[in-house]
Amino acid sequence: YRKAFSLAEELGHADPKNPAAARDLAVCGMKIGDILLGKADLSNSLAKYRESEAASAAQVVENNSNLEAVENLLKARSKIATVQERLGDPTAAAGTWRSCLEIVQKWAALDPSKRSLVASVRERIAYFLAFSGEPAGAEPAMREALDAYLEAFGPNPNANARRSIAKAYKLLAEIQKRTGKVPEGLDSIHKSLEMSESLLEAD
After folding, report:
1. CA distance 51 to 30
2. In Å, how far from its chain's centre is CA 149?
3. pTM of the predicted model, to two decimals?
């Protein structure tokens, strides 16, 4: 992958508007970052993920309907947030997920099948706010995530969708517990348990 990355980098410098070179640069950067992350080399994996992010971001600026570049940009940023979490910086991770929100909203507008990703990104924002000492801001973010899940999945969600909603209610309960809203937290955890029990019965 390092050789492929170097070749893509050379091609990218030779022709900055070459979409194939930019794509290869983004993909290879992520692959190298994954390898480095597997070796617990957090600083260098973060650097490679940022190089991948920059390559995809340039493509999105050039053509915001390039859905492959949008997807690669979101993947790179999610990996950046993962490294930030492992580095013990949930505040930075929350900020990275926030930077994904506008992108995924535009993607969902172009492809409605991706609307559940909006909910997933909002959930990640809420999670990292909760664990970065901002639980008061986490609850409204989590409620927005739940609303987005319900809107995306419609009135008759399938089993996987119900699992996502149940997990979201569980996280909401944890956030409410952290802010001293015990009755509200109990209500949320009961909703999560009811959905989980119905899924077990169906299985």
Report:
1. 8
2. 14
3. 0.83
